[in-house]
Amino acid sequence: MSTIRFKALQETFNRKPVVVEEAGRRSELFGQNVFNEASMRQFMTKDAFKSVMDAIQYGTKIDRKMADQVAAAMKDWAISKGATHYSHWFQPLTGSTAEKHDAFFETIGGGMAMEKFGGGQLVQQEPDASSFPNGGIRNTFEARGYTAWDPTSPAFIYGTTLCIPTVFVSYTGEALDNKAPLLRALQAVDHAATEVAKYFDKNVTKVNATLGWEQEYFLIDKALAFSRPDIVLAGRALLGHSPAKGQQLDDHYFGSIPSRVMSYMRDLELECMRLGIPVKTRHNEVAPNQFELAPIFEEANLAVDQNSLLMDVMTKIADRHNFVVLFHEKPFAGINGSGKHNNWSLSTDTGVNLLAPGSTPMKNLQFLTFFINAIKAVHDNEELLRASVASASNDHRLGANEAPPAIISVFIGDQLTKVLDELEGVSNGKLSPEEKTELKLNVVGKIPDVLLDNTDRNRTSPFAFTGNKFEFRAVGSKANCGKPMTILNTIMAKQLKDFKKEVDGLIDKKGLKKDEAIFNVLREYIKASKKIRFEGDGYSDAWEKEAEKRGLSNNKTTPQALKALISKKTISLYEEMGVMSNVEVHARHEIELEEYTKSIQIEGRIIGDIARNHVIPTAIKYQNTLIENVRGLKEIYGAAFKKVAGEQLDLIEQISNHISEINSKVNAMIEERKKANKLTDAQKMADAYCDKVKPYFDQIRYHCDKLELLVDDDSWPLTKYRELLFTR
Ligand code: ADP
Ligand code: MG
């Protein structure tokens, strides 16, 4: 009997839901462990408070004296909450989050000690950066990197540590993390969008990008997950035959949340409340043991931080409930994978959602302006947007008939399609009074202020307008939202900047009125960006052919998709918008290629290992049992044994065939890995892993999974799909 598997199952059967005490009303818990506006007011001097608020609102610098005051207040607050350590919390280019803990406690001589934390420690720290990926930046420039406080995302206490959100940059200023470029992109989109919003309302002084993510994940019992080396090491099952019953009946989606999971979710939500993460919805997802969690949307930088924090919190709380969380985009072949829809919009400091239709023609023209510019931005940069969600794990999902395809397109629904069609007919240059009235009354004026219920939800579109926001659905569940958010906001910033220039040009040079100029430019954008709009079934083969005709990219693999990150166009875009330098862009590209290569390499090793050390020996043992049996039959029946041992002989042969296939495929894969490892160019190496190594995975798996069906269940060493997915 296979011990680990059956022990794990036994352990799982005996589990009870972990009791979670409700700790008072959630509204009271909310933000308890966050150094938010309320706690800042309470703990800070007026001046310090004002300087932080100015930094948040206008990006002004906090001087050193103020930083000391802010640090003192932050420390007092943290200690009052039981914190003993502080940490600069940041998001390196690979992995989720990183932190280095330091105690507040310092000795002050004479055998005494006190709690210390000054402005210096708040504003800047020097983590041992050498182990974080930097794509050659630190080698080329300076050996050291430092973390610097980001006052726009509030500090929080996790456990007994005060966590201070920071950017991570090299001494020469290059970003070594996901946050620094995001902040620059958000600033760029703020500037560009504010200028455009001023056409409609002079009082707008700031525009925030908003993000509401929807996190999908799998929860697997800890003992079962740990019984599988592939799940432990790669975060997904590399082998395993599909169970007889999967998600066909949709019974998980519509069923009630299992009680152990419910108790996990409650625990998680309470922690989220304390950390100020406004989680709101929870439910089962399509696949068995798959779930989703979504918050109320927030300013994008904060929302990205909260998602990174959440993923960490989810993992830790899962452990307490004897679960393992899988964030992998495709942990189990044959059933649905996980994504992280990024709902995105722009919102003014006057409280207007720029992607929400309004109640007057003018408000609707504002809506249409931002709406059409967003479509144009996606049109002009579809390949870059695709690159923003590329990863080895997300490659399993995109284009796999359950998630959006690798082709980027925009879905807007019938009503808005009609509106855009009509706007396409707007006259060139000055508009007659009749045309203006007609536009106001019958086109722009006819957009209902609540489109939400009317936008049909095309679930197959990677970038869909859903009433008052766009939903970028191609983002992977494991991803740091910072990457897609940086790219999306950068392309929007560029687009709005160009738009403003064109409109101003028509006003100045052609003497057009503002609204005439806007209509004229929008008309051209609608025409120019038509090919990105697609309302049909994104999963169909017909769309792939159609998209090719339209000249849209269809980059199915990460090494292919990432090329857009370093195109001339991308680099000049980043430089123009002040988001990243040439060096930063190339560093990132290299890191992402390396990450891709490493993850395929690791998976290749695991699959070879399991196939050779687990599957083949088990198959041989079972085959020996069969051989024993045939021998016995031969003793009893003599020459006539073949008649009674036919099935067994057939099985023996089948097992031999599978074993030899596995062996030769594993050998061939290892040969390809050796060849790939000799390559020195990161792109070529990633290509080799993608095109030469990876194809063996499915072939090896095929034979292993066949053996799973042939070999005695009692001796099969790997916990089976049905056990992983249906035991709770
Ligand atoms: P669903 O798509 O599940 O039907 P909703 O329309 O309520 O549901 O929104 C889904 C997600 O979109 C939520 O996480 C929500 O926070 C987010 N969202 C709603 N409005 C905005 C906005 N203006 N900007 C960014 N995200 C938003
Ligand atoms: Mg959604």
Look at the helices and sheets and give the structural class: alpha+beta
Query: Which CATH C-level class of the largest domain is it?
Result: Alpha Beta
Low-pLDDT segments: none
The CATH homologous superfamily of the largest domain corresponds to Glutamine synthetase/guanido kinase, catalytic domain
Q: Beta-sheet strand percentage?
A: 5-15%
Mean pLDDT: 90
The total beta strand count reads: 17
Report the sheet with the most strands, covering strand number, pairing sense and barrel closure: 9 strands, mixed
End-to-end Cα distance, whole Å, is: 23 Å
Bound molecules: adenosine-5'-diphosphate, magnesium ion
User: Total helix count?
Assistant: 27
Number of domains: 3
Q: Name the CATH architecture of the largest domain.
A: 2-Layer Sandwich
CATH topology of the largest domain: Creatine Kinase, Chain A, domain 2
- Radius of gyration computed on alpha carbons: 29 Å
Shape summary: globular
- Fraction of residues in helix: 40-55%
Protein name: Glutamine synthetase catalytic region
GO biological process, one term: glutamine biosynthetic process
Coiled coil: 652-679
Keywords: Coiled coil
